[in-house]
Amino acid sequence: MHIVMIGTGYVGLVSGACFADFGHQVTCVDKDASKIDGLHQGRMPIWEPGLEAIVSHNVQRGRLTFTTELKPAIDTADAVFIAVGTPTRRGDGHADLTYVYAAAKEIAGALVKPAVIVTKSTVPVGTGDEIAKILKDNSAPEGTSVASNPEFLREGAAIRDFKIPDRIVVGAEDDHAREVLREIYRPLFLNKAPILFTGRRTAELIKYAANAFLATKISFINEIADLCEVVGGDVQEVARGIGLDNRIGPKFLHAGPGYGGSCFPKDTLALLQTGESYGVPMRIVGSVVAVNEERKNKMADRVREALGGTLQGKRIGVLGLTFKPNTDDMRDAPSLSLIAKLQEGGATVAAFDPVGIEAARPMLKDVDFTSDAYAAATDADALVLVTEWDEFRALDLKKLAGVMRGNALIDLRNVYEAGEVIRAGLDYRGIGVPAVTAA
Ligand code: NAD
Fold it and tell me: 5 pLDDT band (50/70/90 cuts)?
């Protein structure tokens, strides 16, 4: 199969490289010439474990190429995937479909023979219909069809998720599209990956329903964490106690600073807007969004409380900036709102992240970026663990206590156990667990 992938970001590059690894011929197209130049020189535009090896292997095998020009790439394509961004539209919370529709128009102008156009971007229900209309209005060849194939990979584990998915969802309205997508994913059938064929609109909805449900689990356990703090419970044990129930499951029950990242915030907002547009209010998702927003804003209050009620003149060390470990993605990271609020309160911030500093630099003003965790802690009145990178899981707590000016450790990911922290001479505050003060 010859596949063209439009958009060479977190989803497009991983999907393109993995399809090439299955043996397909893949051309990745991106408008951003600097990304394509970098890829030609073997430089990855994103940080994703294992990606560089799989890209370079398939480039060497001649199965994976990169270009900024769609027209020459599309001549022999069996399938053209759209994997461009669908960020929140400014002002109203709808998904911004500008890039998707622009790509559809470019495809229509470039196709010389029919192909299956597949939306991998997360798009609201009905977008496939609109793409079909754009293709028709712009004289795409007769027989061109439109399918939906939402992507469920997680940054940080993207290659594994792509190659060993829980399921593949294909929404298509004709047999040809179904057959082409079955053939593209055939190498995965060996792993018994379930493939769910459904209608295009249903496939579009599945993606939003999945993300909204996962976000709901997170906001739910975060509210339980708040209750635990007031009544003297331990949210980690509550999560384990409910997660062992197969009907609930243990995943996405980690209390923390609120969800962030490039998907949940924008996708929950977009689902709310879809509900509004069709007169079916998504009340549960509305609460999930409100709980999360309020939570993100409250994280700085925890730091203020740990510092005796004021942030003025305090120095705060922040460990972890990316929205989760094993990615350089800073989109909607909880660290951004936290740091802004700490600075608003009069604190200065020193921060360290193992890979996210370059992406964070343009988004954060007046932050002292350091070269390791201990440097971020040096002279700090409080240290806040925001992203649970592996290298923050076994810090030398005595060494931290030794370099800090104050003694407050605020662990927003419950990485540490209170006892070990107070033995090192630091006060401990986690999420939904009792705060403990060093003797
Ligand atoms: P991204 O911003 O990393 O990449 C998008 C790329 O598309 C950019 O490189 C941009 O230059 C390129 N682009 C835009 N318009 C183009 C055009 N007309 N022609 C060629 N290139 C064009 O975005 P992403 O994180 O990969 O997300 C892409 C889509 O996948 C979104 O809809 C997102 O919601 C969805 N998704 C993302 C994830 C994730 O973890 N990031 C997971 C599942 C689904």
Answer: very high
